[in-house]
What we know:
The complex is a heterodimer.
Chain A: H1 2-9, H2 36-51, H3 57-68, H4 73-94, H5 100-112, H6 116-125, H7 133-144, H8 149-161, H9 166-181, H10 186-199, H11 204-210
Helix pairs in contact in A: 2-4, 3-4, 4-5, 4-6, 5-7, 6-8, 7-8, 7-9, 8-10, 9-10
Chain B: H1 2-19, E1 25-37, E2 46-61, E3 66-76, E4 80-92, E5 99-112, E6 116-130, E7 134-147, E8 150-165, E9 168-179, H2 182-187, E10 199-212, E11 215-228, E12 234-246, E13 249-258, E14 269-279, E15 292-300, E16 306-314, E17 320-324, E18 332-333, E19 335-337, E20 340-347, E21 350-358, E22 370-373, E23 379-385
Antiparallel strand pairs in B: 1-2, 1-14, 2-3, 3-4, 4-5, 5-6, 6-7, 7-8, 8-9, 9-10, 10-11, 11-12, 12-13, 13-14, 15-16, 16-20, 17-18, 17-21, 19-20, 21-23, 22-23
Amino acid sequence: MRQLRSATTIAALVLASATAAAAQQPRPVALSIADARTRQAVEREIARAEARGLPTQPLVAKAMEGVTKQASGERIQAAVASLAKRLEQARVLLAPSTSAAEIASGADALAAGVPGAALKQIRAAWPADRSVVMPLDVMTELVARGIPAKHALEQITALMSRGATPAQIASLGSSVNADVAAGLAPDAALEVRARGVMSLLPSPAAAASSAPAGVRPPR
Amino acid sequence: MIRRAALGVLVVLATRGAAAQALPELRFDAGYASVRQPGFLASDTVRAVDAALLALFWRRPADRWTLYSSANVTYARDSLAAAQGVMALVLPWMDREHLRTDVGAAGATFSLRSAGRGGNGNLFARQHYVDDAWGGWGGAAWGLTARDGRKSASIAADVGAWARWRFLFGSASYARLSSEDLPLLYASGGTSSPYATSYEFEDVQLVLTARRGPHELAASYTARRAVAGTDDGAVALSVNGQLQLSDRLAFLASAGRQLSDPMRGLPEADIVTAALRVSLGPKPLPVMERASLAEARVIARAGGGGELVVRVAAHDTLAVEVAGDFSAWRPLPLAREGDWWVVRVVLPPGKYRIGVRANLGPWRAPRNVARVRDDFGGESGLIVVP
Lengths: 219, 386
């Protein structure tokens, strides 16, 4: 019943400029939420995030998700505020990365239960000018699958150190997914698939010698 | 005593049978009913009695069929005791996506102050045509009732059609019934023609249902006209509703008149009920209505990105939508392709959260992808496009 009330109270959310693909720092968005208190609270939260230099597109998407799911105004406010907090945490943990996509991926990783220390380790595994969006996303997916964060982190950072490309890391995630869907235990699937991707990569010594300056040497 | 023991055995067997297998859906209703049954004479009218309700529903969907069974017991000390059980198989046609056949059997035992003691069994078959927003059916049933030592047969045929418009679901049906169960007619306040050994009547029923997510409100109107063996007609109006309190708990209520049902051996009655429904199985209450199964996969494209394919097996579902980061959480409708509802979206590399819903029900993650909490008390699926 609360959902019904919410649906009538929050009539519509119109986004002036928000598309899922827009990964760059978005411009301020115009929110139109029928419930004035909710709208103003969400707008304030987005304005605060923008003032702090945080990406605002994930906050707009979270509000839109809440409207689509007919969440109450209070719940939408709380969800947006909570995400803003995670974005802030992710930015600190992923420093010196400043890209909106990395910060958003980091925030989602924290929400999925990836420890903050893991974000730092993933960031450190590649040079600062190389995006860690895909390793973060695959890490999030693996942890959401029920794989212990420590195990997932070991495999992903090992692949990163060995010079795996984002596509190879992504293929690790999709292969594990397929195995899990076929009935394999997530942990076992990760072990097997990581070994498979690893076998395609150059040896640690070769990776170290061919790594660009700034790459953390493999362990 | 023997009959009560039989009722207990029925419930225990139904529970054990359900527990012995994988349990995609198991519901348990418990509540209160006030039942008033009319009699042949005004003095026969049974005053309203308070009764306890107990019901169990189990359903197991598979790739090509759905098996479901239900059992319920209504009990009010010495004036009313009835138990019913139903087992049915829903069979979609292999090569005709719009066709579906239901076959099943039902049984009942009753001890009614107004209509005697006995038992009843019936077989039924129903052929459905199911399109996106409308459909129809035709069916037949045959039943045998033993009441106070007297056996009688009943036969029924019905045709109907339904249509859906936004959140409204309406149906109209016509049924013709013939029965030898004269005591049931008398117990319902009716009279038979002289020398009649059976009677016939026809029912026209209209049902209008409003659905909003898991919540539902329905009103039903039935007009009965005597055709042979009796001059008595009747009308009945009833309303019922379901309010979903949480994933596993719902409140159900109904009020109205139930016309006599020769197939189940039950007389006319005015009934008011209130009950709580609890989901006992591993799957919460209607996750996706009917036999729905959603899955999402990504087909990688050379050069990066991929095609997200979401498909839902829902033979008799009326509408399926998907939403996610890729659509700025605006719902996108799925289209029918054979036995599936399908949508395809080309996406650049990245991580996307996604939800699927059927018939405006709750948003859920597809079954084969990783899941994350969504900050709204639910969950979203998570996919990574390489």
